[in-house]
Amino acid sequence: MSKLFIQLGFEGFALAAWETVYMTAISTAIAYLIGLPVGILLCVTDKDGVRPVVWLNKLLGAAVNILRSIPFIILMVALIPFSRALIGTSIGNGAMIVMLVVAAAPYIARMAESALKEVDRGVVEAARSMGAGVFAIVWKVYLPEAKPSLIVGAVISTVTVLGYSAMAGTIAAGGLGTLAVTQARPSNAQDVIWLCVAITVLIVQVVQELGMWIARRTDRRIPPRAKKIRTK
Amino acid sequence: MIELKKLSKVYATARGPLEALHEIDLTVKDGAIYGVIGLSGAGKSTLVRCINLLERPTSGQVIIDGEDLTAVRKKRLLEIRRGIGMIFQSFNLLEQRTVEGNVRFPLELSHTKRAQAQERVRELLDLVGLSDKAKAYPSQLSGGQKQRVAIARALATNPKYLLCDEATSALDPNTTASILELLKRINRDMGVTIVVITHEMKVVESICTDVAVLDRSRIAEEGKVADVFSFPQSEIARELIIPGLIRSIEGNGGKKLRLVFDGVTEPVIAGLALRLGIAVNILYADAKNIDGKAYGHMVITLPDDEGQAELVKRHLAERNVLYREV
């Protein structure tokens, strides 16, 4: 057992794990609040959407694509001034959350867009035939019908954000990634690195299984009997 | 009353403009069950979607009870749509809502009070015979049950009109019959005017009062079902109504007579042989027995002898069999 391992003890690992979890959770939640409306707009204003607005769709689509194509580590550097302007600092957990939100929101927007576009066009057409306006179609058709898909998207996004959060050490934020990269690696504490990996895998497993379980339970398209069958 | 005036719809496609409807003029009187029949690609679906402006016509007017839908504001259009129910081939139920949730949907859109809505949902499920399925989800229902839910939902806001887009095309014959029976009842008991889009002759035959035959974006023929079915004028109508007929007429020389049986009780052809001693060849026959009366079409050969031919015609006329030389 390495010196660092003993020095950290249970509390050291628990703190790092907690930091990872809360940065991921808060970032994903805020990113969802931004990404979901953008995803709705992308779906609604599409040329085949319920209220086509081609210029807005193109503009949003381009913005999302640009943000998504920048590697996260470069995006972090680019966002330093933004973070400073927004929360007064460009280092630490708070700054990390800002950067994770900027990286994850466009990702979530695309996830939400594709989940909404999976909703049967016929059902949307039926709602239109009943005199539903755009707002009612989004609120009463798109969102409830796409709910299981949206939950799956949230799970995938959470795992992605968790992965990004490993780079937190770059800007002096905490978490398991920081522990492994900035503390364990220089002192060659292999056991610390492996425990960090194990804890991360565990967190991903829990998020994944719990999320999928919720998605399955909410989906009414699957008859209750079939729900017991495990699908991978 | 629904009036379509010079209605055209042109789609812009990658290969240039595609005309789905060409200057359609059509009137659906209140109380009618109006059938629009045609082969696939004839423009039927576009036509029905133009009635409630799910598709905006390229030119022409859609006038419902005197109001031109192509000219009204968006908000008014949504109100008008609430007075026009619609059902679809693929049912289009909300998969994440229960049966009663689906039927309640249009009532939520019209901001009906909850208790009142609940009462209406109960009435409607009773009407379509699905009271016991109120809490079920669409995935637990059969096709016929889904269409019943869709019908209940379409009727929730007491619409004056009901549009049916191939509503029975995904159903088996027995289920089709029961859905058609339900539509007939809705028309008769609730006075709902129904427009039926279909490619199935038997649908028009069994419930419609009027019919328009759509062919390549145009109305080929229109009229009362009895008239159009007895003596279809256009080639496409003949093709649709009596498929084997054309072949039977073309394939044989000599004079022929096409007979239309419209509730005949007597054995007419046998009578011809027994009473007049004239034997005729039956080239084509498609008849149905409903309550002991014969309905349908038949093509027979006429004797070459003019006098005998006259006798045959008189025999038919006396027995109320409509005929036409072909």
% residues in beta strands of chain A:
under 5%
Helical coverage of chain A, percent range: over 70%
Number of helices of chain B: 12
Q: Please provide the count of β strands of chain B.
A: 14
The CATH topology label of the largest domain in chain B is Rossmann fold
Query: What is the CATH superfamily of the largest domain in chain B?
Result: P-loop containing nucleotide triphosphate hydrolases
Measured as a percent range, the helix fraction of chain B is 25-40%
Strand numbers in spatial order across the main sheet of chain B: 6-7-8-3-9-10
Outline type of chain A:
elongated
What would you note in describing this structure?
The complex is a heterodimer of chains A (232) and B (326). With 232 residues, chain A is mainly α. Chain A has one domain (3-231): Orthogonal Bundle (MetI-like fold), CATH 1.10.3720. Helix content of chain A is 76%, strand content 0%. Chain A is elongated. The model of chain A is unreliable at 227-232 (pLDDT under 50). Chain B is of the alpha/beta class. Chain B has two domains: 2-235, Rossmann fold, CATH 3.40.50.300; 250-325, ACT domain (Alpha-Beta Plaits, 2-Layer Sandwich), CATH 3.30.70.260. In chain B, the strands form three sheets. A six-stranded mixed sheet of chain B has the order 6-7-8-3-9-10, with helices on both faces. Chain B has a four-stranded antiparallel sheet with strand order 2-1-4-5, covered by helices on one side. In chain B, α4 packs across α5 (143-155). Chain B is globular. Classes of the chains: A mainly alpha (232), B alpha/beta (326). Chains A and B meet through α6 and α7 of A and α2, β6, α3 and α5 of B.
Furnish the topology, listing elements before pairings:
The complex is a heterodimer of chains A (232) and B (326).
Chain A lengths: L2 H42 L9 H16 L2 H7 L1 H8 L4 H26 L3 H9 L4 H31 L11 H9 L5 H29 L14
Chain B lengths: L1 E12 L2 E13 L4 E6 L5 H8 L7 E6 L2 E2 L5 H8 L2 E5 L10 H11 L4 H14 L15 H13 L5 E5 L7 H18 L2 E6 L2 H7 L2 E6 L2 E7 H6 L4 H7 L1 H8 L5 E9 L3 H9 L5 E9 L2 E9 L4 H13 L3 E4 L1
Parallel strand pairs in B: 3-8, 3-9, 6-7, 7-8
Antiparallel strand pairs in B: 1-2, 1-4, 4-5, 9-10, 11-13, 11-14, 12-13
Helix pairs in contact in B: 3-4, 3-5, 4-5, 5-6, 9-10
